[in-house]
Amino acid sequence: MSATNGKADSHAPQPDNELDEKILALDISASAEETQAMATRMQQRCKLLLEELEEFQAHLKQQKKEKRVEVRAFKTGLYAEMKLLNKLAVSDPNEPKTKHGLRSSNLSFFDTVWSIAKTRSSVVALGKRFFWQHEQNNGDTNGKVLTRGTRHRKDVATVDIVSQDGMEWIKVSSRTEKRIIWDLTRAGWAGDSSSDEDDEMQSLDDDDDEPGLVKQIEALVKASRVTRIRYRHPTVRLILPKIKAVPDSKEVGNVLKQIRELGVDVQTSEEVSSEYPPISSVIHRMASDRFEFFSESLNIDCTILLAFASDLSHGRVEPEDWHNKAISRQIEVENQDQLLPSNLWPACGNRKMVCTRAAAVRMQEIVDIIGTETEKRRATLLLDTSTDCQLSREDRIREFQKLSDYAVPLGWALPIAVVDIDIPEIMASLPPVAEKVLESLTSINKSVFLYGWSTGKTTISSNGAVAKDVESTIEAHRMDEETIGPDIWLSASSRSLVGKEKERRGANSNGQSHAPLATLP
């Protein structure tokens, strides 16, 4: 099935859940026919994985999300595997090195990672490397994340799947109990393994420098503890499709116990599905934004109120010579990517919306001074304090539809409720670091962002500079690990009001034209 055209492909191959066992069963005594059949089967499977990955990337590009999802490393590895399998498929099937090449293939790992990724939501990376280092400071060890520039392998942790918009790190390990025991033996923690097991483990992994499972997870946990996504450390999950919840080996059970004591969620074979859906049925969930993590009701910033009201957000606006550069640029951007249908309306969904009195008043001031007639009309429909306060939600949507070239969602929860707030009362409910945040905020931004913070509401805004400053201030002055700042979701772009020519805005009491107020508050 194609996610882009919505047509089902009844001949699409399904996941080969037994492939890995068949690869391991391919020993030196396998016939030429068995070896050739296995090479062909692995080729087909790898081809399917690449096709699904490319379909996922095509969907991301269609949704203009390709830049927010990192799959280059995973895709490069999969292409390398395809190249190897193509070579093995034409090699002499009677040669031991052909059988060894098939047994040593990483296809099973890529297959498992991709299959598990299809069960997650808001996937933002596959095979992402996090670099970190320790810095000594008065005897304390503090971690610091590095995006690049380090060559020390001990300072690198690889996350196989980054999902939940960055909040979940998943490590997938295809290790068997025998493999874990072999790792322990190499490290001097277990008795000698048999020569047969040695041969099997060497065929699975020829990299003698690869750290054991515990070392890998320890590095991952350390990297997560110096990484924050929206003020929180990502959770770490280890998925072991070939390990039972109660292993046969006591040593393996101790390894799982040790990993869980690190705070890692461990999923074993009983919790891993053996049936994985085709990409077409899960592609939207995989590529979703973090809307599912929003609060039940949303706090709407003045910048978004203006975007809802602006003529620029509702259809084609012809450029005029009196438009400033910001307006001209927004016209170009809107022609390429419609802000409301592709960004703001999906973010809002059918959630209730509120805004502070200060945000509402500021928006209305700007609209009254420079707004066009259609912008003024939309502004009155947005808020529940307007003269149209008796209109039902359905009536408001119908009226809004008359003023937009786009299909206004029927579930859009108009009107936006206006709330009165008390800053001193709000500050009393916030952590001490809020005093530092308060110092850098304007009056209107105090009302918007502090209100969202104190109530736990997701704040929808396009004011990226303020959002970044709030986050950096909190991280620089936090006094504990538990402090959580305001949940701010930033729109991909902003919209000003189109407004009117200065000469047509009228003059103030001093006979001077009003200054442009269409820009962000």
UniProtKB/TrEMBL annotation:
Coiled-coil regions, chain positions: 32-70
Region described as Disordered: spans on this chain: 1-22, 190-209, 500-521
Superkingdom of source: Eukaryota
Residue spans of biased composition, Acidic residues class: 194-209
Any Pfam family the entry gives: DUF1308
Keyword Coiled coil: yes
Keywords: Coiled coil
Domain DUF1308: from-to ranges: 298-387
Entry-linked InterPro entries: DUF1308
Protein name per UniProt: DUF1308 domain-containing protein
Organism: Mollisia scopiformis
Lineage, opening ranks: Eukaryota, Fungi, Dikarya, Ascomycota, Pezizomycotina
